[in-house]
Amino acid sequence: MSNRILLLGAPGAGKGTQSKRLAEAYDIEHITTGDALRANKDMETEHGTPREYMEAGDLVPDPVVNEIVDAALSDADGFVLDGYPRNLSQAEYLSEQTDLTAAIFLDVGEDELVRRLTGRRMDPETGDIYHTEFNMPDDEEVEERLVQRDDDTEEVVKDRLDTYYENTEPVIEHYRETGELVEVDGEAHPDEVFERISEIVDDA
Ligand code: AMP
Fold it and tell me: Which of 4, 34, 137, 140 suits a disulfide with 83, CB 3.0-4.6 Å?
């Protein structure tokens, strides 16, 4: 059976970067609710548009997000799930849909999260992530097209982190209690983090 990996952690913990690498290395789907919602920001739903929630750093309502995940899971054999579940009711929904090979938590402290998020830049063509202080592209053409996500501004980052501590930390706690959670030091170098995650997946 293919790997079904959950990557948990705060915004800025490195879920996107590591998921991308995992998806390539293990030939599995990268399912990310954040990217799916960004691509459908202005979609009208009975709860309004995703944009309203995202720009406030709030969670988009469960029915909208669960539907995205449902569709993605039914198309995927193996997957790495990035940015979902973000509250306990999503975790419950997920457990009704599929079993997991591993639930991995990238642990990063709050000061480091703020530093990473506010300096984060993205290449809109490849989705690759850079940082104004520690990691800018060598290619000037790439550098010129980098953008900051609307919700990576200092003001929204604070709200997103509040939302994380309130809604998503209980999810981490839940997987800790079920004995499924494996913790990784998310402040280590990205290559080291990837090595550690790969070991966990290989041993699972
Ligand atoms: P991300 O790219 O994972 O940081 O997600 C960006 C934004 O999309 C979040 O701040 C939420 O507003 C929304 N979002 C992403 N995933 C979820 C989810 N599982 N549940 C609710 N809202 C989500």
Answer: 34
